[in-house]
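Structure catalogue
Derive tokens from sequence
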Amino acid sequence: MTSTTTNRWRTIDIVIASVIAVAFGVIFWAWDALWAATENAFLFFPPAQSVLYGMWFLPAVLSGLIIRKPGAAFFTETVAAIISALLGNKWGATVIFQGAAQGLGAELAFALFRYRVFTLPVGILSGALAGVVAAVFDWFVWTYDYDLWSYRVPYALITVASAAVVAGAGAWLVVRALAPTGVLDRFAAGRERALI
């Protein structure tokens, strides 16, 4: 579907983006613990653990699909990363920069369509681009000394796939589930619920 509304942020946009960011900041913190707890479960093929990665991009795509304005994906993902860092994680403050980069990746998909198209394919593209940015970030920051073909390449491919499915399609499904409840009626995503 398309949108022709102004790109100026309203107070409700800032409030909802912040609420999503804070909620996912806490979820990130819990997901950090889940990531650590499941490391042994993926010893058979460690890169496969990145199948869990997509959750870390979900707020960027979700905010982009709901608020539909420039900066929504970037703002929400960055604030969620800050909350996660403040709550504590094993990666420290680096996650703030990583979250901001991932937010920019998700933002790019909406920008490519000039913030006028918010369909499932655009959501999937947004998630996938966030995953690409995360994979590149990890490539140079976290996994640079791992083997290229047995770890880094499959890790990157699985990360992007997880991002496309969990964050991209997942966020679109969350919007689709929320719209009939009326909580998104102040947004085009809610008003167009019959067309989602």
Summary: The first helix runs from residue 11 to 37. The two ends are 7 Å apart (CA to CA). The chain has a mean pLDDT of 93. Helices lie at 11-37, 58-67, 72-87, 94-112, 120-141, 148-178, 188-191.
